[in-house]
Write a structure and sequence with these properties.
Strand order of the largest sheet: 2-3-4-5-1-6
Largest sheet: 6 strands, antiparallel
Distance between the termini: 7 Å
Radius of gyration: 12 Å
Structural class: alpha+beta
Number of domains: 1
Helix content: 10-25%
Strand content: 25-35%
C-alpha cells in the first residue's frame, strides 16, 4: 500500500496519473489492464488502484526481488513528492 498525506489521500485527477504514478528515474512504460493505472518495469506489470488512503499497489510477478520492488516504490514515491508535494509512505511490500 502507498499512503499519501498520512492516509488522507490526495485529489489529483486521473488524467495526471501517467505523470504522477511513475518512477522518477527508472524507465517504465504504460501497461493495459485492470486498476486505476498500470505501468511495466523490467517486464513486470505494476497496478495502482485508488483507495481513500492513497493506492493499493500490486506487482504482478513472483520473480521480482523485494530489493528491486523497494527501489521501484521509493522512486515512485520520489516522483509523487516532486510532482504533487504529497507526503508518501509505503506501508508494506
Amino acid at each position: 500500500m502507498l499512503k499519501l498525506n498520512g492516509g488522507d489521500g490526495f485529489f489529483e485527477p486521473v488524467s495526471r496519473y501517467p505523470e504522477i504514478l511513475r518512477p522518477a528515474s527508472i524507465p517504465c512504460e504504460h501497461a493495459e489492464g485492470w486498476g486505476s493505472h498500470r505501468i511495466r518495469i523490467d517486464g513486470v506489470d505494476i497496478a495502482f488502484s485508488d483507495e481513500d488512503f492513497g493506492f493499493q499497489v500490486t506487482f504482478e510477478s513472483d520473480s521480482l526481488s523485494e530489493q528491486r520492488a523497494t527501489q521501484i516504490m521509493d522512486d515512485i514515491c520520489e516522483n509523487i513528492r516532486v510532482t504533487t508535494g504529497a507526503s508518501t509512505k509505503v506501508v508494506s511490500l
